[in-house]
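User: Hey, quick favor. My workstation is busy. Could you predict this chain's structure for me?
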Amino acid sequence: MQTEVVSKNFPLMSTANPESLEWLLNVSTEHQYPGGRAVLMEDAWGNAVYFIVSGWVKVRRTLGKGSVALAILGQGDFFGEMAILDESPRSTDVIALSRVNLLSISREHFIQILFKDSQVHHRMLQLMVRRLRQTNLRLQMRNAPPAVKLAHTLVSLGESYGLESALGKEIFNIPFQDLADVTEITVEETTKIMEKLDEKGWIKIDSSNSVINLINFKQLINLASRA
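Assistant: No problem, here it is.
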């Protein structure tokens, strides 16, 4: 992978100097996982930071014998950085939703790059603040109607990871249970709302290609703003 690709595809590295990018590639490790495979288990948090080159993953919390999805992440995002700075025990896993390609950088090397390149350090703080604001917004929307909450989830996924296509923004066909979990509504509500949005022509679920086309993104944004 070229340094220009890293800078363009990973927001965390968008302001890094060329030397940092070259060094990052030299110390990173490539990984590939099929859909359904555990990418990061509970006892592995804190060992490395992972960058999503392609594909989709979910962060899930284990609850007894079950689990609940906490977040959906796609191309260009990263995970594992919090555990490097906070050594408290983890009860979360990361699972590949689709075939996923990752780059990992060890804890020691990631801390080094934060000290070596102040722009990377500053950029990471910006992205962590953005995640905190997103969490606060989800809390503010907790009492919003299910359709509004689900529209907000779809808009967030489209804005963060959506690929432009002839039918609008394209995201992975995320299982309804996982969509329900991250939206904090029931899977029954999720199913009904997604079917309704499909009937309206606002989205198109293409199961054969494992994608959801967000066709009328403007209407989804309007719906999400009705909180």
